[in-house]
Task: inverse folding
């Protein structure tokens, strides 16, 4: 990997020297189906680039990662590929003012989800291709200048096996055996795209009369593997797509600029989705093979709208370098939820944002690798790791704060001016801030410095002083704290809500004040004289980005009456705050688990309920004292089964509790129940045990030795699909056997035979918390292997291995010491690799602190 890196300084130097007029890319993918022998490895890629050089006679380079180069022709002169190509770069000497470069290469099919990914469907033997490039894998498919600020128009043509259809960013047609595509607008390399194969393809149409009276027509398409076609609810995908296009046209006042709008749901995808203009790619898991809750449909709609927002934020206007990745990802993350609430049936999506997305941000912002939203991205490896909770969820949270700060109208008018001034260009932070300053009348410099250019998360705690009778507020203040490493106290626009129980027992808000919090202590004068509250919720309505804390009275109220809190957003915010207290070793894990068992059954928001299940499981696995784990597991399994039986037949809550019960089942009776549900000898009224739920029940059975290889083979025969294969591989690796663990380790660490999806599945089955003793021998092996893995494998597989196989379940000080020893001995390791290890170490140290807190609770 190091030889494939590109530094920011190199990119800036090249951008100052070169400008690109256009690409012509010809791909021959007919080898993809093979000839019945060995699996095909390569395809032909011929690229012609027309570009200018501001300093004739200067030297530069083009990017290409390929097993072989047949020819390189620069300005009519044949260059020796052996001399100018080093495996990742093509040296370009003595450039003219105007240049033409043609590269004929043999590029490799991928099995890691990077570049041109090739997938063979085990169900029917069909072959499917798609590309995925961000941040810099287009060079695995065609020669280019792989950096976001060297935009250019593209013309693609593709030869494909007979009977296939091919899609790209522009509209295409098949002529004389060649798929030729319309020239794109100027775009960056990483958002070009090709999808090819016998995909199931559905079409629709969108039209809109614009403000100037012109009619905008956009052909719509959606596709998936043929094997998933029976499950493909394309009509709902198109519904959300049309609602999103209406919403963004209303608010952005800039017509969708890229012609058609195809959406491809593709197999073995590493990401959630990718915003390639005209051809968005999604992971196919967004096509639901079984019953799922509305939270899954909401999440899919959010991703559809997130990627659509990128057509403006990211594709039309693109950041100059990955330092300003937030200019596209933060905005798309915010706009996804903004549009979901404003345009679709998912009007409570801000609750999911507050509860789920912000949890991701809070975790990332407390890691040693935290960084400002506008980050310092030195090279491509830094860029790859910066698609994180800071860039996405914290950035979106800060934009939500910005909307509260400048007002929604000023914010959207700023966006409109930003698009019109910078269309098809590249921008930096200052370009956006300048238009926001214009539209809001506010100086954005101080706000940007505090929110975009500093790291860390503030904590806001209410301080309530009552009058002498204790019935009224004498003074209410908000205390702001910051971690020692990141001491910035930011300006926060917050709402402070006061809650009391009604005579009927409901916990409801009776007063709310919106105010600006600045510095270590801010008095909220408007609340003086109000009736004494039982609960004070700072950041009510979730206007800002902060960790919410509670005064003693409020925390005591939540311990007894959290389920009585009637407002679903307020309830979600309280759950999130309690989880942060648990992670920060301020609330014992057993107390958090107890709150979930007591109140989660009354949770009306299904997304919040599923998040509570995940948090309760994490509390047991990571934060509970080891001596209490068995007790906690028993209590949680009993509680999950109780709620499963109590839930409404056929309800979303019933399905969620069934999945949670399977996730925590370990006792013999619980495993026997899962077997009976699979066999049909026992039923739960209204619960349909479909194929996806069958696999969810089989995993704990496999992990506890109650489902052997033969049982899993029989289930695969029942579900002989790509999805079934992934489930089976995970279950096989979950079996409680030393030989199984050795085989799984070898398949992932010592071999590159598995595809990215099967690597992910094997890792998931290998490292189960219930099998700490079985995986203990691999802690030492992990530290011995990771530098080699990072050096030899693709960055995606390297990330999967380093994150997924870290011995987190060996949660002892000795593991922390082993991590520190490795870090000390590998000070010169790749910075991205060290970052991953440092993050894993921090998670482990946090777990050990929380376990100490929980252990102390045992003596209460």
Result:
């Amino acid at each position: 990997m190091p030889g494939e890196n590109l530094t920011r300084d190199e990119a800036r130097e090249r951008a100052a020297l070169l400008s690109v007029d256009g690409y012509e890319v010809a791909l021959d993918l007919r080898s993809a189906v093979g000839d019945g022998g060995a699996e095909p490895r390569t395809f032909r890629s011929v690229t012609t680039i027309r570009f200018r050089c501001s300093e004739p006679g200067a030297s530069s380079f083009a990017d290409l990662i390929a097993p072989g180069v047949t020819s390189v022709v620069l300005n009519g002169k044949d260059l020796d590929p052996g001399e100018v190509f080093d495996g990742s770069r093509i040296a370009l000497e003595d450039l003219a003012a105007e240049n033409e470069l043609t590269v004929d290469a043999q590029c490799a099919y991928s099995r890691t989800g990077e570049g041109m990914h090739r997938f063979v469907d085990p169900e029917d033997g069909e072959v499917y291709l798609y590309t995925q490039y961000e941040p810099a894998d287009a060079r695995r498919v065609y020669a280019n200048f792989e950096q976001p600020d060297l935009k250019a128009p593209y013309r693609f043509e593709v030869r494909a096996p007979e009977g296939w259809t091919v899609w790209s960013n522009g509209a295409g047609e098949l002529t004389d055996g060649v798929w030729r595509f319309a020239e794109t607008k100027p775009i960056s390399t990483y958002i070009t795209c090709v999808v090819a194969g016998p995909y199931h393809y559905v079409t629709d149409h969108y039209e809109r009369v614009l403000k100037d009276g012109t009619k905008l027509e956009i052909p719509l398409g959606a596709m998936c593997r043929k094997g998933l076609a029976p499950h493909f609810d394309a009509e709902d995908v198109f519904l959300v797509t049309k609602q999103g296009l209406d919403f963004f046209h209303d608010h952005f006042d800039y017509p969708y600029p890229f012609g058609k709008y195809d959406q491809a749901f593709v197999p073995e995808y590493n990401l959630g989705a990718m915003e390639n203009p005209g051809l968005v790619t999604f992971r196919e898991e967004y096509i639901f093979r079984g019953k799922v809750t509305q939270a899954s449909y909401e999440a899919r709609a959010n991703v559809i709208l997130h990627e659509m927002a990128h057509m403006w934020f990211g594709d039309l206007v693109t950041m100059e370098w990955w330092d300003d990745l937030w200019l596209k990802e933060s905005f798309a993350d915010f706009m996804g939820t903004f549009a979901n609430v404003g345009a679709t049936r998912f009007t409570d999506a801000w609750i999911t944002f507050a509860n789920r997305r912000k949890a991701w941000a809070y975790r990332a912002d407390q890691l040693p690798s935290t960084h400002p939203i506008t980050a310092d991205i030195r090279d491509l490896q830094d860029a790859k790791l910066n698609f994180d909770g800071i860039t996405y969820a914290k950035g979106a949270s800060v934009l939500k704060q910005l909307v509260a700060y400048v007002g929604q109208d000023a914010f959207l008018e700023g966006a409109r001016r930003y698009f019109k001034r910078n269309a098809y260009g590249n921008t930096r932070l200052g370009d956006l801030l300048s238009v926001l300053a214009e539209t809001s009348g506010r100086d954005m410099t101080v706000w940007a410095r505090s929110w975009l250019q500093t790291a860390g998360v503030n904590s806001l705690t209410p301080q309530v002083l009552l009058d002498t009778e204790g019935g009224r507020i004498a003074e209410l203040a908000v205390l702001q704290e910051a971690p020692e490493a990141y001491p910035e106290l930011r300006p926060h626009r917050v709402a402070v809500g006061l809650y009391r129980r009604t005579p009927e027992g409901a916990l409801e808000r009776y007063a709310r004040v919106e105010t600006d919090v600045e510095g270590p202590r801010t008095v909220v004068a408007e609340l003086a004289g109000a009736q004494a509250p039982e609960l004070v919720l700072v950041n009510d309505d979730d206007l800002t980005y902060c960790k919410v804390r509670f005064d003693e009275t409020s925390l005591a109220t939540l311990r007894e009456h959290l389920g009585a809190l009637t407002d679903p957003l307020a309830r979600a915010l309280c759950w999130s705050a309690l989880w942060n207290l648990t992670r920060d070793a301020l609330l014992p894990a057993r107390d958090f688990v107890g709150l979930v068992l007591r109140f989660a059954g009354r949770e009306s928001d299904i997304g919040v309920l599923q998040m509570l299940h995940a948090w309760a499981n994490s509390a047991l696995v990571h934060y509970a004292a080891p001596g209490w784990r068995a007790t906690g597991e028993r209590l949680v399994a009993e509680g999950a089964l109780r709620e499963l039986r109590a839930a409404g037949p056929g309800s979303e809550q019933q399905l969620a509790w069934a999945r949670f019960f399977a996730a925590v089942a370990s006792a013999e009776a619980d495993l026997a129940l899962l077997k009976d549900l699979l066999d049909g000898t026992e039923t739960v009224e209204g619960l349909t045990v479909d194929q996806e739920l069958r696999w969810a029940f089989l995993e704990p059975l496999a992990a506890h030795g109650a489902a052997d290889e033969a049982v899993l083979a029989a289930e695969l025969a029942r579900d002989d699909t790509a999805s079934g294969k992934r489930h089976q591989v995970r279950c096989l690796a979950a079996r409680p056997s030393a030989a199984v663990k050795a085989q799984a380790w070898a398949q992932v660490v010592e071999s590159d035979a598995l595809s990215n999806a099967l690597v992910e599945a094997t890792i998931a089955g290998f490292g189960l918390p219930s099998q700490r003793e079985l995986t203990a021998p691999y802690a030492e092996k992990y530290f011995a292997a990771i530098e080699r893995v990072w050096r030899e494998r693709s960055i995606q597989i390297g990330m999967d291995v380093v994150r997924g196989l870290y011995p987190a379940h060996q949660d002892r000080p000795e593991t922390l010491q082993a991590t520190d020893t490795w870090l000390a001995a590998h000070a010169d390791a790749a910075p991205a690799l060290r970052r991953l290890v440092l993050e894993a170490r921090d998670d482990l140290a946090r777990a050990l602190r929380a376990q100490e807190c929980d252990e102390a609770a045992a003596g209460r």
About this structure: The chain is about 45% helix and 20% strand. The longest helix spans residues 831-857. The mean pLDDT is 96.
